[in-house]
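U., I forgot to send this yesterday:
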Amino acid sequence: MTVRDTGAMIAGMSPRLDPGLWHFCTVDPDGPLAPRVKECALSTFIEDEGLSAILPGDDAKALGLAGPLPMRRITLQVNSALDGVGLTAAVAGELARAGIPCNMVAAFHHDHVFVPADRAAEALTRLQARAGASS
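Result:
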């Protein structure tokens, strides 16, 4: 069931930490690496500056695209409505209060929070507490 109510989205987010490492990178969309990047990417987005991608750690390394900031993904298990209001703000705000950078990716069914790998456990704990405080 799709959840639209702000409080229900936050209370039901049930954050889950993915075990893998992820790297954000960019390549020329017409360059030789673009097909390989698209093949292994979790997500891609065309920007004016190039093809942005989120790559699994091993693939990013193999392609020479691993950056200095490996990320971990926290999936918010709530099936949030595309027109739901407040979940992203609540998550980003909670992490900002702790000084944890985050990159939010909204997909059709769930929102995904990418945080620096070395802060992932702390981020997960904070989001679990935030969800518990909203129930």
